[in-house]
Every structure is written in structure tokens, then in C-alpha cells.
Write a structure and sequence with these properties.
The structure holds two protein chains of two kinds. Chain A is of the alpha+beta class. In chain A, 38% of the residues lie in helices and 28% in strands. Chain A has a single domain, classed as Dynein light chain 2a, cytoplasmic (Beta-Lactamase, 2-Layer Sandwich). Classes of the chains: A alpha+beta, B alpha+beta.
């Protein structure tokens, strides 16, 4: 079982990780971050990006009651992985990791991220 | 001498690296540990106990037992984790959410009677820290966030009344918005609904403002127009059959291009109904 700070340390130990941040999606607040220059702005931006993705996919898909496993954005230099965690009363809480595109393995990173989020909410 | 403002009291205790509880008027309490805030309670918002109870993880009775078992100065949070009620990550998030929610309503700029009890701790123990400037900054950020969602406080303290018919053909709702619309009975305010649902009051306030921005709840603007009598919409008219063959050089479409915004159309419909009702 891990806490919020350990969850960030674990995320930063994913090969190629450049930064990690936990975002409260409802309020758009940065809960905690590592290797993120401006956590406040990052949290607001990632929260909006997740909201737009959720709405866009809801409109574009016939699937009802779907849930997003993760969102992957690839830029020229980095992968951005966003993984939502449903909390018991609010949320989701977003675990967002930025990875060096040259030094990381996307499939491995996704698996690790899933393990970390499962550990955070597992009692 | 004028009483110090709440901000000054909070900052002073942080500078003194105080440990204990600060009672703020009758509305709530701020818990300090070595100058940092570890928990905030407010009468208007659900605390960790309320959030846990509403999530169905533990009964109110179970919370009472855990509280007694932890005893004064104990770590009730760790006890709940050991009992398997919630994980450590969930406990931390729960404390963090409840604290920020309470702070948003309690720590508004004001002058209020305060009383500091040295050494008094919250029964949950210490699971997350906030420094005072950071906490006040976050409260200000949240206020700005509300304004961005819907720049009016008219709905914050008024009963939530969903519109009987939505504008447009569909609406996207978050989980909380769905629960709110189901629970809204035109008498409960957002903060009352939050307590009833066991959701943070700030999240509820924000969700209601977003519902207002999406035009799904009654606002002063929509209430000003007379209510439409609910009647089934008229069946859509079939397009007229093309009478003339389209010659070369003619536009393929005989129908004018529709470029009106759906909200404009709705406003026109409401105006028409209002005029008919005169």
C-alpha cells in the first residue's frame, strides 16, 4: 500500500520519466508534483485536456458508460500519459507522467502506471 | 484596538510554529501542527466522517467507534486504514479534499472571534500538510475557477432547480452533475445538496455553476421568461420534394444554408412562446 508521495516517486522511477504530477480533476488543483516547473499551470492544463478528451470521446463513440483507461499524447520529444483514478467520493484524481520519447517504452510505462494507481487506491 | 483579521491570525500561528486547534467563530476549526495546517473543519461542508459515511465504506457508528478507539492524541486515520476501511492514498486524498473544501468556506477574508487551544489535535491524526500561504492561495484560485465556470454567484445560495426541458438535443453530464440533478428538489441549495450526497461542497458549487453555464438549471435569466407548457415537439416536416430539376450551374441545394447558433434558435422559440402566452 502506498501514499500520495510514494505514488509520485514510483511514477518518477519509470524509465524515461521527466516529470510527474497528481491533479484533482474537479478543482483543477495540483495535489503534488515532481519535476514539473509550474505545477499550478500544468494541473489546470492537464485537467482541461482530460475534460475535453472525455467530452470528445463521449460524443464520438457509441459506447455508453465507458471509462478512460489512460490518455496518451505524443509530442516530438515526449510522451504524456494521463491515468484517471476514481476516488470514492470525488475525482477522478489524475496521475500524469511526462516521459522522454527516446528513453522510454510506452507499453512498459502504461503497465507501470496501472500498477501504481492500483496500489494507491488498494486497501 | 481593532480585532485582527482571520488572515493575520492564521499567518501569526504559522510564524509561531504553533501546534493546536484554532476555533473560528462558530463555523469551524483549523488544526495546526508545528505551524502547518493539518486539517480544517467547517460546519457547512462534509468532513472526512461525512465523506466516508456517504461512500458506504463505514457507518456513522463505525466512525464513532474508531474515534473512541483512537482516543485523544491518537491516530484515527491509521486505525481506519488498518481496519481496511480505505487505503493510505485514499485517506490522504480524503483529508486533503475535506480540508480544502472546509478552508474555502471557512477562511474567507473577515474579522471573527477566534480561540486557540494549544496542543489539541484532530482524532484522525496527521496525514497531509498545507502551509498557510499555500492554503489561502488555493482558496483564491478556487474562487477564480468558479467565476470562470459561470461568472455569477446568484445560484450559490439559491435552491437548485433543473430546467424541465433542456436546450438543444442532448447534454453531457459529469457523475456529480447527474446526482445533483436527481437530488435537486427546488428547495435544497448547492451546499445542502452536498451534505445530502456526501460530496465536497465546493465541487457541488462548481457543478451547479457549470450546469448554469450549460443552460440546464433555472437562473434569473431563464426564470424571467414564462414557463413553456410541456407538449410534445411537432413532428419534423418532410423536406419538400424537388419540383425543378437542378440545371447546370445551379446550386445543388434548394434549401438556404442554416448558420444560426442552436442557442439563438432556442431563444427565438422561448420568445415566441412568451409572446403567444401574452
Amino acid at each position: 500500500m502506498i501514499g500520495i508521495e510514494d505514488c509520485l516517486s514510483e511514477a518518477m522511477s519509470i524509465p524515461g520519466a521527466l516529470g510527474a504530477i497528481l491533479v484533482d480533476h474537479t478543482s483543477g488543483m495540483a495535489v503534488a508534483g515532481k519535476g514539473i516547473p509550474d505545477p499550478g499551470r500544468a494541473a489546470a492544463g492537464l485537467s482541461e485536456a482530460y475534460r475535453a478528451t472525455l467530452h470528445g470521446i463521449a460524443l464520438a463513440s457509441e459506447e455508453t458508460g465507458f471509462r478512460i483507461e489512460d490518455v496518451i499524447v505524443t509530442t516530438g520529444t515526449a510522451y504524456h500519459l494521463v491515468r484517471p483514478m476514481e476516488m470514492m467520493f470525488d475525482g477522478p484524481l489524475l496521475l500524469c507522467v511526462r516521459l522522454d520519447v527516446e528513453r522510454s517504452n510506452l507499453a512498459l510505462a502504461r503497465r507501470r502506471l496501472r500498477t501504481i494507481t492500483d496500489e494507491l487506491v488498494a486497501s | 484596538m481593532a480585532a485582527p483579521t482571520l488572515d493575520a491570525v492564521l499567518t501569526g500561528l504559522a510564524q509561531d510554529e504553533a501546534t493546536g486547534s484554532l476555533r473560528v467563530g462558530k463555523e469551524g476549526t483549523v488544526y495546526y501542527d508545528h505551524g502547518r495546517v493539518s486539517y480544517v473543519e467547517c460546519a457547512a461542508t462534509p468532513g472526512v466522517e461525512g465523506l466516508l459515511g456517504a461512500s458506504g465504506r463505514i457507518s456513522a457508528n463505525g466512525v464513532r467507534h474508531a474515534r473512541q478507539e483512537a482516543g485523544p492524541g491518537g491516530d484515527g486515520g491509521a486505525l481506519l486504514v488498518d481496519k481496511g476501511v480505505l487505503s493510505r492514498g485514499e485517506l490522504e486524498f480524503c483529508v486533503l479534499s475535506a480540508t480544502l473544501d472546509a478552508a474555502f468556506f471557512l477562511l474567507t477574508p473577515k474579522t471573527v472571534r477566534t480561540r486557540f487551544k494549544d496542543g489539541e489535535a484532530h482524532w484522525l491524526g496527521i496525514h497531509w500538510f498545507f502551509d498557510v500561504p499555500g492554503l489561502l492561495r488555493e482558496c483564491a484560485r478556487r474562487r477564480a475557477r468558479l467565476e470562470r465556470a459561470w461568472p455569477s454567484s446568484e445560484l450559490d445560495a439559491r435552491p437548485v432547480t433543473p430546467l424541465r426541458r433542456i436546450p438543444g438535443s442532448h447534454a453531457l453530464l459529469s457523475r456529480l452533475q447527474w446526482e445533483l440533478l436527481l437530488a435537486a428538489d427546488s428547495t435544497a441549495t448547492p451546499v445542502e445538496l452536498a451534505r445530502r450526497l456526501g460530496r465536497p461542497a465546493y465541487s457541488t458549487l462548481l457543478a451547479v455553476r457549470e450546469l448554469a453555464a450549460a443552460g440546464l438549471v433555472v437562473t434569473a435569466e431563464t426564470a424571467a421568461l414564462p414557463k413553456r407548457t410541456p407538449k410534445p415537439p411537432p413532428p419534423p416536416k418532410p423536406p419538400p420534394p424537388p419540383k425543378r430539376p437542378t440545371g447546370p450551374g445551379r446550386s445543388t441545394s434548394e434549401l438556404p444554408q442554416v448558420n444560426a447558433d442552436a442557442t439563438d434558435v432556442n431563444l427565438l422559440l422561448r420568445l415566441r412562446d412568451a409572446l403567444e402566452a401574452l
